[in-house]
């Protein structure tokens, strides 16, 4: 008989953001290790952009309970956003007053549904995943009421996340730090997604090391079945999959890419962008030299993205400066594709360590434009000769990051908590 876990997940199909994959793949494979899932997630008003097929991974016996609505801002915020010159103030007010984060509107609905579910059906454990931190805030209240073991999964840090936690007022920072500390202390197990984040949780929040574990992001072998693609010989294709926003842009790479294009004198090269990065490039890339070699694919179904990764000659990863603690899910899919990787980010960092360990890519800092240009030129000339490095198939070392193996680790955490 399977044990049952209650999962609080704001990002869940039909949502299509990157945060959906981790929870969905856990749900898919936890059943192989004796755990049945009840997922409480919001309703989504907007239809997903592109048939990404994440919903296909949810086992039919999984109980999905819809509570509240995603992105359902209170009326006052919507009105402020529509008033000229006041929309900025509206955003500042939301950032300062919504507690614990911008998804606080979901709290009442998910708490009521979770209480009902736990009263009506026996569950052995509570699992919450962030962002948003609202899911942990609700789990904290459920833990107090029902005294069930609780696992808090941090897909990204909260107050230490330089990409999403933007210099709030000091009084708000103190409140957030106090709640963050309470969550780490009250949870029976805290899950970090990288070694750096693991260390920060222990050092900053004084959490006993035995209460913290690292379960990384990963790839699903099922997404790569029947993919035996080999890159075409007509053009040297570089691909990026994902989004750009704020400081998260490919400006360093584009500088090196332009130099490479000029020096090689119209090379047979194309830079393909898939996902929201296509819209960013449409709005911000104006250089005719780059535009002549740019391909905007838009939103692409996830399975098709995995095939495209295997059909390219080089895969691009970029991160802003000072984001040394994080590794996105897509990088593990990059690795599984077998295509060489070029990354622009901090060094040392979690990304550089991962690429060094797997031997499947090179990392360049943002100030190494000359070296990056040389690397692009060398890769292109190797491609011209037909001897660019390539690995097809799943190597033994990468299976550590398979979604099934990662779900096995999470199930092990659940089982250890029950034995206690």
Fourth-level CATH superfamily of the largest domain:
Glycogen Phosphorylase B
What integer value in Å does the Rg equal?
A: 22 Å
Share in helix: 40-55%
Structural class, by secondary structure, is alpha/beta
Order of helices and strands: EHEEHHHEHEHEHEEHEHHEHEHEHEHH
Can you identify the CATH class of the largest domain? Answer: Alpha Beta
Number of strands: 13
How do the strands of the widest beta sheet line up side by side? 3-2-1-4-5-6-7
Count of helical regions: 15
- Cα-to-Cα separation, first versus last residue: 20 Å
Shape estimate? globular
List keywords for this structure.
420 residues, 7-stranded parallel β-sheet, alpha/beta, single chain, Rossmann fold, globular, 15 helices, 41% helix, 2 domains
Describe this structure in words.
- With 420 residues, this protein is an alpha/beta fold.
- It has two domains: 3-218 and 402-419, Glycogen Phosphorylase B (Rossmann fold), CATH 3.40.50.2000; 222-395, Glycogen Phosphorylase B (Rossmann fold, 3-Layer(aba) Sandwich), CATH 3.40.50.
- It has helices at residues 19-30, 75-82, 87-97, 107-120, 134-146, 170-186, 195-205, 251-264, 277-284, 288-291, 302-311, 329-337, 350-358, 369-385, 403-419; strands spanning 3-8, 35-43, 63-69, 125-130, 150-154, 189-192, 212-214, 236-241, 269-274, 294-298, 314-318, 341-344, 361-364.
- Strands 3-2-1-4-5-6-7 form a seven-stranded parallel beta sheet, sandwiched between helices.
- Helix 7 links the parallel strand 6 and strand 7.
- The two termini are 20 Å apart.
- The model has no long low-confidence stretch (mean pLDDT 89).
């Amino acid at each position: 008989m399977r044990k049952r876990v209650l999962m609080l997940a704001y990002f869940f199909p039909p949502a299509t953001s990157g945060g959906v994959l981790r929870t969905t793949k856990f749900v898919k494979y936890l059943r192989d290790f004796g755990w049945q899932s009840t997922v409480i997630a919001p309703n989504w008003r907007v239809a997903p952009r592109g048939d990404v097929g994440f919903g296909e991974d949810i086992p039919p016996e999984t109980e999905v309970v819809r509570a509240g609505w995603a992105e359902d801002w209170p009326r006052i915020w919507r009105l402020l956003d529509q008033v000229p010159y006041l929309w900025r103030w509206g955003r500042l007010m939301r950032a300062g007053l919504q507690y614990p984060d911008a998804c606080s509107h979901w709290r009442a609905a998910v708490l009521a549904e979770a209480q009902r579910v736990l009263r009506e059906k026996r569950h052995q454990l509570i699992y919450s995943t962030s962002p948003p931190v609202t899911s942990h805030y609700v789990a904290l209240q459920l833990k107090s009421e029902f005294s069930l073991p609780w696992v808090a999964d941090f897909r990204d840090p909260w107050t230490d996340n330089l990409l999403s936690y933007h210099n709030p007022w000091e009084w708000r920072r103190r409140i957030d730090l106090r709640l963050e500390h309470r969550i780490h202390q009250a949870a029976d197990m805290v899950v970090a997604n990288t070694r750096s984040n693991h260390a920060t949780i222990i050092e900053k929040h004084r959490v006993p090391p035995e209460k913290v574990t690292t379960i990384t992001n990963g790839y699903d072998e099922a997404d790569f079945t029947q993919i035996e693609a080999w890159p075409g010989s007509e053009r040297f294709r570089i691909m990026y999959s994902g989004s750009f926003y704020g400081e998260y842009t490919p400006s360093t790479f584009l500088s090196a890419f332009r130099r490479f294009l000029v020096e090689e004198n119209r090379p047979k090269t194309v830079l393909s962008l898939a996902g929201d990065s296509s819209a960013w490039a449409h709005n911000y890339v104006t250089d005719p030299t780059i535009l002549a070699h740019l391909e905007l694919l838009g939103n692409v179904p996830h399975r098709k993205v995995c095939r495209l990764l295997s059909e390219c000659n080089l895969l691009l990863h970029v991160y802003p400066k000072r984001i040394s603690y994080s590794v996105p899910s897509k990088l593990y899919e990059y690795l599984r594709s077998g295509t060489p990787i070029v990354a622009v980010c901090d060094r040392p960092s979690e990304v550089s360590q991962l690429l060094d360990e797997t031997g499947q890519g090179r990392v360049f800092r943002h100030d190494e434009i000359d070296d990056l240009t040389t690397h692009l030129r060398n890769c292109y000339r190797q491609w011209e000769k037909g001897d660019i490095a390539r690995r097809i198939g799943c190597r033994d070392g990468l299976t550590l990051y398979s979604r099934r193996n990662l779900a096995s680790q999470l199930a092990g955490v659940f089982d250890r908590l029950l034995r206690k």
